[in-house]
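Re: [help] complex structure
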Amino acid sequence: MARITLRQLLDHAAERGYGVPAFNINNMEQGLAAMAAAEAVDAPAIIQASRGARQYANDIMLAKMIDALVEIYPHIPVCMHLDHGNGATTCLTAIQSGFTSVMMDGSLKSDGKTPASYDYNVDVTRQVAEMAHLGGVSVEGELGVLGSLEHGTGEQEDGHGAEGVLSHDQLLTDPDQAVDFVAKTKVDALAIAMGTSHGAYKFSRKPDGNILAMGVIEEIHQRLPNTHLVMHGSSSVPQDLQDIINRYGGKMPQTWGVPVEEIQRGIRHGVRKINIDTDNRMAMTGEIRRILTDNPGEFDPRKYLKPAMEAMVKLCRARFEEFGAAGQASKIKVVPLATMAQRYARGDLDPKFHTQRDAAE
Ligand code: 13P
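Output below.
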C-alpha cells in the first residue's frame, strides 16, 4: 500500500458514508500508535503535522518517519497532511517532504493570529490549490475563524489561533460565502467554523446547539453536497481522561469537548475529516502520570512511553470505529499522485465517478 491523497480518501469516505479521524503527531510514539490502531481495525489513516510539529520534530525526521510508517504498515493507506499551513511556502515545503495533502488556512493572516479578509483567504487558498493540484496533492481550506461561541476567543495552539475577541459572524462559517469560496479556490475539503476550538477548554458545559452550531454544517452540506467538510477542534475531552490526569497530580479544571454523537451527526451531513489532537495528548499524559506516580523510582522512558502509546492506540481505535472508518482500508485501491494530477488537469473530479473508476482500474 502507499500514501494516499486526502481527496481520494475522502471521496471513498463520502461514497460509503464514513468519516476519517485525522490524528496530529509530533514524534515516533504518536506516529506508531496511530498506525497500530489503524492496522488493528483495518482503517485508512490521516496523520497530520502542524507547523509546531515540524519545528519540534524537524522536517527531515518527519519525512523519514512517514517513509518508515508506510513501510511498517504496508496494508494501510496513509494520508500525510499539513495542519494549518500559513502560506504558500509552508505548504510547498511540506509537499517536498512527502505530504500528500496540505491545509492552507487563510482564515488567519500569515502570522497565524490576525483574522484575514475574505479576499485574502480566497487569493492565498486558490494559489496553493493551483500549485498543489499540479502535483496531484490535495488542499484543505478554512472559512470562518475557530473559536468559542461562549466567549468569542480562539485557543492558541502551537502559536496558531486568533487573537482578540471575535464576533459571531467571524466564528460561524457563512453558507453563501462557502459556496463562493469553494467555486473560486477549488479546494478538496473545507474546514468549517461552528464553535469548536483547539485544546481541552472548548466548552464550560456539555455543548448544545447554542455553543456547538452543528446546524451550520447541515446547511453547508445541503448547499455543497460534493464538498468534503472538516471539523477542527474535535477532541471529545473524555471525562475518564480528565479524571486520571487529576487523580495522579494533574490540575485540569472541569471542561467539555465535542461529544462523539455530535461528530457522528456531522458525518451524516458531509463531515469526512475530524481533527483530533488533545484527546491523544491527554491519553498519553494520563498514563505517564499514573506510572510515574505509582513507580517514583522509575527512570526508563520506555517504561512509561510504551503504556502511553497503548493508551493512544485505544483512543484512536475507538474513533476509527465510532466514525465508521474501521474495515475500509482493504477496500481502497490507492491512485498514484500522477494520476490525481491528470484528473485535476482535466477538471475531472466527480467523487462518485472517481471511486468507481479507482476500483475498476
Ligand atoms: P483538538 O485540540 O480538539 O484535538 O483539535 C485538534 C485540531 O483541530 C488540529 O487542527
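The CA atoms of residues 26 and 53 lie 5 Å apart.
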